[in-house]
Amino acid sequence: MVFTWLQFAIFMFLIGGLLFAGGPLILSALVHPRAKGGDMGMSYECGMKPHGRAWNQFGISYYVYALLFLAFDVDVLYLFPVSVWYPHTDGMFYFIEVAGFLSVLAIAIIYFWKKGVFTWPRKIS
Q1: Does residue 50 lie in a domain region?
Q2: C-alpha angle 47/125/73, rounded to 5°?
Q3: At a CB cut-off of 8 Å and minimum separation 6, what does 75 contact?
Q4: Alpha-carbon distance values, 98 to 5, 8, 77 (Å)
Q5: Is the dihedral of CA 25, 29, 33, 36 positive or negative?
Q6: Where is it predominantly found (predicted)?
Q7: What is the pTM assigned to this prediction?
Q8: What is the pLDDT of residues 24-33, one digit of tens each?
């Protein structure tokens, strides 16, 4: 088998990619602090000692709202190129595509609304 320059370049890029991905992991394992206990296992709250149950302060509602926001925000980003290109199109095909996309988003919002995702609990336990 003849080892060409293209194969050598592919091999070097593969090695470089593995080092780029695994290098920080190996480096962090070598230089991380070895201390255990004390304040190392304590949660960080702006440099102050945490009060109460610091690990259980946030309810899942915050994360659900954040994930829903990200999902719908990314979907809305698809509408920007469509709105720029839409005046240059002919026919109803692209209108039907955009209407279908928006109807899927609307159905998702109605589904989450019916499931009670958008109702904020009074007390998070």
Answers
A1: no
A2: 75
A3: 101, 105
A4: 47, 47, 13
A5: positive
A6: membrane
A7: 0.47
A8: 999 998 998 7
